[in-house]
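Progress against Task 2.4 (sequence-to-structure conversion) is shown through the following example record, which the project officer requested during the mid-term review.
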Amino acid sequence: MQHRIIDNSTEENSLFARLRSYIKNSENIKIASGYFFIGGFNKLIEELKNLKEIKLLISTTSNKDTIEEIALGYRYRDDIKDKIDKVQRNLNKREKDSLITDSKSDLRLATETAEISDENEAAIKNLADFIKQEKLEVKVYLKSKLHSKAYILDYKKHLFDENGNRIERTENGVCIVGSSNFTLAGLTHNTELNVLIEGNDEHRYLTEWFKRLWDESEDFSKEFFEELSNSWALNYPTPYEVYLKILYHIVKDRIEDSQELALEESDIFSDLTRFQKTAVAQAINILEKYCGVFISDVVGLGKSFIGSALIDYYHKRGKRALIICPPRLMEMWQHYDNYYDLGAEILSMGMLSQDNGFEVINKYKDKEIILIDESHNFRNSENNRYRNFLEFLLQHDKKDERRLILVTATPQNNTPFDVYHQIKLFHHEDETNIPITPPNIRDFMNEVIDKKVSFQSLLQRLLIRRTRRHIKKYYPDEKINGKPIVFPKRNIPEPIKYSIEKVYHNMYSEILDYFKDLTFARYNLFNYVKK
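Structure tokens generated for the chain above:
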């Protein structure tokens, strides 16, 4: 014989198991619960489908004016009862609407936080169908917080056993009251205390109790249905929204997060265009994730300004910078360093090519930011320049503290391994956490050459490159120093047709006739050898 106490201590003595057995013989159920979550409904969905009527009475969990809170504020006041009565009796339309809105928010949160699964999707669809079929009615009790939990079941009028024989039953139904909310936890594994109540008098009393609260409550079925309809289970995304979602996940590493990257309005940042500031923000994200970035905008888009802004960003955070560039660019970088107060040192790339190149670069072992202008000069790993620099980087590996900024409009000249050798300057191991397949940079490059994978899947993680067409399309109104950006217009070459005969008259024909008379004797000496 089953015990009347239901406490979820065992699977057989869980509220879920008891309700499931009683619902099979019932035609209606009335539920009063402080909380409602999809999981509780989903657990009993198959049994609930066979009922004629389901009435769900829930509380608004956001009511700031509950009796308990009033009592706390007026604990020692003689007028506490009057205040409680006033709250219970008088709620104007604005207050009711506010509480209904709170209840909608609670339901929205319940559906949004429900695990996205086939089971929960089916449960939400069934809930919506129950409301459309008028099988399910939902109301919200607003007068005070509904702390009661009750499950009142009305038995079917005619019951039959497995053999089809009619079962005579005098009970009108059965009730369970206690602590369990209509949630998955309340039905199954929370430590609860509920009691089974039988007998027609008790059933009648609890039915009247429920009816009284039901009549005092506000209808919530329409709002309930609206929230379900707008949930992830019923509000299907359009193909375009799916496309945008996929696109976002592809490029999210490159999207500027202005809250995380507070780019100071220093002199250099003030001089940047919008597209250059965007590149700086994207580059910082890449540098922090992979310790290296390619700044590879086409010629004329200000790669050196972007590089200067990156040095300035890290300089303000106490990082020391080194700029390595070809000899002809040293004067330009010295100007940027002085003008924007970058605090950087500048080294000629040619110094690395000398036999003592390692000793030269080794003086800068304290540098945490290294910018290499025209980094494509490091595409070949077999020359002194590359070997000296790589040895320096390996000997003074700063364990993800050093950042390399590779500035080049042409990171690849011949093969993908041009890029590979530059990546190896900041990513020394072939095994990688960069999301590529295979997760080995050397193997990946070989598969790029074999056209088995897309090179772009790696480049989009490490490289920033915009063309003039991109700037004209997405930044058409951009200005520098108040003047619009204008790219020279390239005119299609037009052929100029002319007639040699018309220009030189008959001279061309005469020249050809003279050519015909040439014997080229010096090239045909054997014709003059006597036999």
